[in-house]
């Protein structure tokens, strides 16, 4: 299942990694292991952040994707299901409307 992974990295932890020269290697290792379809770096409320698009084949994949961020950067990690227009079409919203509308 395609998921958006939002990563919020506290400034202090990332600054420490930049200062000790390990930030680049840590980021490389995390991304090499996660193999995201895409990754974009951004900010969240003034902190560094990233958005990754990943394929989660099984719920047991979640720790593999999240733990490196937790352990290396004390980051917050959120997972959100992502659908393509084709996925949304499969949901058959018209049928749901018939069932759940007043």
Order of helices and strands: EHHEEHEHH
Number of domains: 1
What is the approximate shape? elongated
Structural class: alpha+beta
Architecture per CATH nomenclature, i.e. the level-2 architecture: 2-Layer Sandwich
What is the beta-strand fraction? 25-35%
User: What is the CATH third-level topology name?
Assistant: Alpha-Beta Plaits
Helix count from the secondary structure assignment: 5
Count the beta strands: 4
Rg: 17 Å
* Main sheet makeup: 4 strands, antiparallel
User: Terminal Cα separation, in Å?
Assistant: 32 Å
CATH class: Alpha Beta
Instruction: Please mark out the parts with pLDDT under 50 across 5 or more consecutive residues, or reply none.
Output: none
Strand order of the largest sheet: 2-3-1-4
The helix content, as a percent range, equals 40-55%
CATH superfamily caption = ACT domain
* Overall pLDDT level: 95
Descriptive terms for the model:
single chain; 102 residues; alpha+beta; Alpha-Beta Plaits; 4 strands; 47% helix; elongated
């Amino acid at each position: 299942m395609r998921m958006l992974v939002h990563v919020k990295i506290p400034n202090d932890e990332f600054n420490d990694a930049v200062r000790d020269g390990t930030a680049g290697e840590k980021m490389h290792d995390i991304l090499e292991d996660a193999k995201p379809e895409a990754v974009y770096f951004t900010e969240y409320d003034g902190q560094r952040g990233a958005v990754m698009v990943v394929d989660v084949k099984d719920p047991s994949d979640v720790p593999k994707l999240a733990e490196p961020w937790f352990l290396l950067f004390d980051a917050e990690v959120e997972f959100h299901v992502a659908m393509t227009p084709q996925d949304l079409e499969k949901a058959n919203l018209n049928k749901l409307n018939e069932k759940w509308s007043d």
